[in-house]
Design goal:
Largest sheet: none
Structural class: mainly alpha
Number of helices: 6
Order of helices and strands: HHHHHH
Strand content: under 5%
Helix content: 55-70%
Number of strands: 0
Shape: elongated
Amino acid sequence: MICKHCGYDVPNGIEYCTACGEPMPKRKEDETVEDVCAKEQETVLSKKEFNKHYVPYSVKLSLHAGAILSYFYTALSLYISIGVLILGKAGVTDIVLLVISVLLAILTAGFHIKKSLLCAVVITVIAGLFTIYSLVMAHQLTVVWLCAGILAIYGIHQNRKLWRAYQETGKLPPRVR
């Protein structure tokens, strides 16, 4: 049986979940495992519960990896830009980097926390334009944000595809452990 509180697979006949300690629902003697599974399928899940238990790790990983790349590079860019400003040697490219860093940090929070596809697409477009700008103006190739945006778009797209399939059919995909 699956614990409704934590999602742990508890052996049949156990009264309390061995992972979280919550009481397990009583199964009637004539009720089969298939009947219990069918009842679980009938339960309507919230999007948060669905994401927690049924979205594959690879999809979650792409979202988190994109966010970590973006957060890291934003912090690095802010550190460099503010350092250059403090030293009084800021050029146009440094100010553009500072503005882009702040904008992309806000958008990263949007796709990471809210799973906003719009934020992920905007990050990718801005990152692509910034990559071209930095290559032409500063002779540097900065593709970290571009990679972060692409990872975010992939993860959000897959997440939405699974959610839409669940809403349309009512059938849950295989449970993620």
